[in-house]
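Teaching soon. Got one?

===
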Amino acid sequence: MSTPEFTANRENFCYRHPDRQSFVLCQRCLRTICPECQTQGPVGVICPECLKEQRKAESPAQRRARRQWGMSSAADGKPIVTYAIMAVTSLVSLVAMIPGVGTQISNTLAFFAPYLYPNLFNAPFEPWRLLTVLLVHGGFVHLALNMLALWMIGRSLEPMLGRWRYLTLYLISGLGGSVMVACLDPLQATVGASGAIFGLMAALLIVGRHLGANVTGILVILVINFAYGFFAGGISWQAHLGGAIVGALVAYIFTRTKRAKQRGLQIGLLSAVVVGLLAIVAFVPPALLTAGVFG
């Protein structure tokens, strides 16, 4: 179901398929195009009409290079990044579940805030854990549920945002989840991609609302999942909260900087979010630990 605002705003629909909503603009003509009409370019995507004009302007050498490297004009709109994340995460997580060698992998990639503060703890400095935590899980069921959620959300969200923005959203949301854990529960080790996935859910809510869609169902699912993580034992609700907040912020930036001429502003704002998160994790947890807040 859609709201009247959604139906009335034709800019939210593909200009070639008026019944298909999309969040992606052709980088040349700036018209909205659905996944079927998108052709991935060096930067962003272009529509079939602009692609045709571009091909007409190619030199013979450019045409030969395109054929040699297998560049296709067809756009399948498949959530390639979602599939890639699922494949890599599943591989690493399953290997980490192998007795013996797997334990070492899990211990190396899991997030544990003391590894960020060698001056406060007798531990090495391992900042990569802020993101590698997304690759390991606490068991097969944990992995399966997260990958199922990623598959369900990614099929809708990735084509709307585009591959690079979608990947950026996933990684920054995951970073946000780790930062929140460091701030609220720094002495607890965590694993899993839940922070990033909650960021995707929050982003789908923001993007859907921006497009004028009825997002009540998404909101209910987000609240139920967060409430379950908050009251159930053994689940890092802090990572869920951090991922959701940061994912919503990143999605809001996307909705306000979607035009090609705003790309510089978009990159600047996203960079500011990352720098802000790194500043928070660098200063807030040490101050709280020094003050004895966590014992």
Notes: Residues 68-76 have pLDDT under 50 and may be disordered. Strands lie at 39-40, 45-46. The chain is about 60% helix and 0% strand.
